[in-house]
Write a structure and sequence with these properties.
heterodimer; A: mainly alpha; MetI-like fold; two-stranded antiparallel sheet; B: Rossmann fold; OB fold (Dihydrolipoamide Acetyltransferase, E2P); 8 helices; elongated
């Protein structure tokens, strides 16, 4: 075998374990879901094998699904915006801090050591009727009755921000950390104030990180079902809750499959748009 | 164009003192080099003049005006960095125009001013390109154009040539000096490269460990070093322990290898009393020869120990008695072989004396 052929084969040899895992654990199950979505659940509860478009017709035309999908995208968008506004200054602070960058990054990672579900449920201890916040207000005599703060759209967004903020901070941090601090000094020396230098130089150069963080927050936020389940009220279901409902509660796998593919399609389009303009490389940087 | 004055400046980072109390006067229009090894405080000084660092004590004046409390964006300085620091998301023309936008320059004038600056650095046709499309040397020229287009009071250059390769560095050295002379701007240049300092400067400020060791014209600093550090840092020197005798203004050193060496008063400005002293012998002033010494030249027998051939010159290490000496000689033909018995010729007027 020639040297060239050997060198050409090497990446594939190294990639094959990962590719095998991805193929078996992701693409094959996904294919099952695609097939399932064309089956039909009959009144008896059995799945009828075949090629039926009923699930797709229901998913795509029923206003109920459309409204929840739009609401899901809205919640994801608000969450992403809040994460960007809160995360950017934090990322800037970490990127510009001299000695303790590693410690600050470690602190940022710390929440990941605790299950996402536990972290979400912790808000019940804080905002619940007998939670810390209400207890404090009662003890101070500011209120006489505990206030119901949980189980609405705001607490869903709060929970999502809590969950997704580190992803935003990390992505923006990676972007900011790669910007030479001399650039801001140069802008200052040329007459720009610190704020002008930030707007003219640092912000535009960090936009790829902001976009990567935004995409991650949006996609993860739009696909979640645990946060609305734990922190949302009866009317705060997000799209993934419908999938959960169809598959786990109603055992209607064909409809659940169609719904989950629908969400996958919408988010997939977003990722494609992102990739068209910014490329996946930036996202990979942020994840690494 | 303005003079720059540092008055009793001290800079401490926590418990570490980066710049010990020092004062410095940089005349209007001069090209002054802060020279020293890394960590000597030269960049700290530059950054304090720029306003990127605040001095712990003392004051900084630019054009006679105290600027300690003037933020960097109001100091009107041109700053050039080692890594160019061009804005990667802006074109070359936008980079050069950046400072003009903050200076009430009518927007109709900006393209003309940008073009003049690009002409001055001899890159008139790259305005539409992005920095990454240019070579390192070209990027540094653009950085220079960006710094001088704003007509700064002072031009601050932080090791601007260090990132370039050797040949380009020498070209840029000449180019930089030409531009500086043309626009006549007061320039503070930071480098660790002695040949850059010697070639370009009106004045050299040699620094070591946060202290100013010597300030002077290049020839003065080179020929009459004020300290052992300066003698070693600029060129190669042999520094030998000696005893000094004064008689009616004349300085005479007694050293065990070279014997009695009369030193011209100009080469011993820091000798004030008799006693221990140092004899400074530049490596290139020590000439290896097999012929007898002419009148007035000291001659000492020695043996060649190491030969470091460098083409037009050669560096020898020779043993004279129990002293090892370094000599750098221009050669024509073959260098002396190891083990050759030679005479070391030294003219006393080429030596300098330092207090012991």
């Amino acid at each position: 075998m020639s040297v060239e052929a050997r060198e050409a084969r090497q990446p594939w040899i190294l990639l094959s374990p990962a590719l095998t895992a991805v193929a078996l654990l992701l693409f094959v199950p996904l294919l099952f879901i695609v097939v399932y979505s064309f089956w039909l659940r009959t009144a008896t509860g059995a799945d009828q094998v075949g090629f039926f478009l009923d699930n797709w017709q229901e998913a795509l035309t029923d206003a109920f699904y459309r409204d929840i999908l739009l609401n899901t995208l809205k919640i994801a968008a608000i969450t992403t915006f809040v994460c960007a506004v809160m995360g950017y200054p934090a990322a800037y602070f970490i990127a510009r801090s001299k000695g303790n960058k590693a410690i600050l990054l470690l602190l940022l990672m710390l929440p990941f050591w605790i299950s996402y579900i536990i972290r979400t449920m912790s808000w019940i201890n804080i905002l619940g009727v007998s939670g810390a916040f209400n207890s404090a207000l009662l003890a101070l005599g500011i209120i006489n009755e505990p206030i119901q703060m949980l189980y609405n759209e705001t607490t869903v967004i709060l929970g999502l921000v809590h969950f997704l903020l580190p992803f935003m901070v990390l992505n923006v941090f990676v972007s900011l950390d790669g910007i030479d601090t001399n650039l801001e000094d140069a802008a200052n020396s040329l007459g720009a104030t610190r704020w002008q230098a930030f707007l003219q130089v640092t912000l535009p150069l960090s936009l790829p990180g902001l976009a990567a963080g935004g995409l991650l927050c949006f996609v993860l936020g739009a696909g979640t079902y645990i946060t609305p389940l734990v922190l949302g009220g009866p009317t705060d279901a997000m799209f993934a809750n419908l999938v959960f409902e169809a598959i786990i509660t109603q055992l209607n796998w064909p409809l659940g499959s169609a719904l989950s593919l629908m969400l996958l399609g919408v988010l997939g389009v977003l990722v494609l748009i992102y990739n068209r303009y910014l490329g996946m490389a930036q996202l990979m940087k942020g994840l690494g | 164009m303005s003079s720059v004055t540092l008055n009793n400046i001290v800079k401490r980072f926590g418990t570490f003192t980066a710049v010990h109390r020092s004062s410095l006067e940089i005349p209007e229009g001069a090209f002054v080099t802060l020279l020293g090894p890394s960590g000597c405080g030269k960049t700290t000084n530059l950054r304090m003049i720029a306003g990127l660092l605040d001095p712990t004590e003392g004051e900084i004046l630019i054009g006679g005006r105290r600027v300690n409390d003037v933020p960097i964006h109001k100091r009107n300085l041109g700053l050039v960095f080692q890594n160019y620091a061009l804005f990667p998301h802006k074109t070359v023309a936008e980079n050069v125009a950046f400072g003009l936008k903050y200076r009430n320059v009518p927007s109709s004038d900006i393209p003309r001013r940008v073009q003049e600056a690009l002409d001055l650095v001899q890159l008139p046709n790259v305005g539409d390109r992005y920095p990454k499309a240019l070579s390192g040397g070209q990027q540094q020229r653009i950085a220079l154009a960006r710094a001088i287009v704003i007509e700064p009071d002072v031009l601050l250059l932080d090791e601007p040539l260090s990132a370039l390769d050797a040949n380009l560095r020498e070209d840029m050295r000449v180019e930089l000096k030409r531009i500086q002379e043309r626009i006549g701007v007061t320039t503070v240049f930071v480098t660790h490269d002695q040949s850059e300092a010697l070639a370009m400067s009106d004045q050299i400020v040699v620094m070591s460990e946060g202290r100013v060791e010597q300030v002077g014209a290049p020839e003065e600093v080179y020929n009459t070093p004020a300290s052992e550090f300066v003698a070693h840092f600029l060129g190669a020197s042999n520094i030998l322990a000696a005893r000094c005798a004064l008689s009616g203004g004349a300085v005479t050193l007694h050293e065990k290898t070279f014997g009695t060496v009369p030193i011209p008063a100009a080469k011993a400005p820091r000798i004030t009393s008799e006693g221990p002293a140092k004899l400074v012998v530049r490596a290139e002033k020590l000439v290896l020869s097999t012929s007898p010494a002419p009148e007035g030249v000291i001659s000492v027998p020695a043996t060649v120990q190491t030969v470091d051939y460098q083409g037009q010159s050669v560096r020898y290490f020779v043993q004279a008695g129990d002293t090892q000496l370094q000599a750098i000689n221009m050669i024509d033909g073959h260098p002396f072989a190891v083990g050759t018995k030679v005479n070391l010729h030294l003219r006393p007027q080429d030596c300098a004396a330092l207090p012991g």
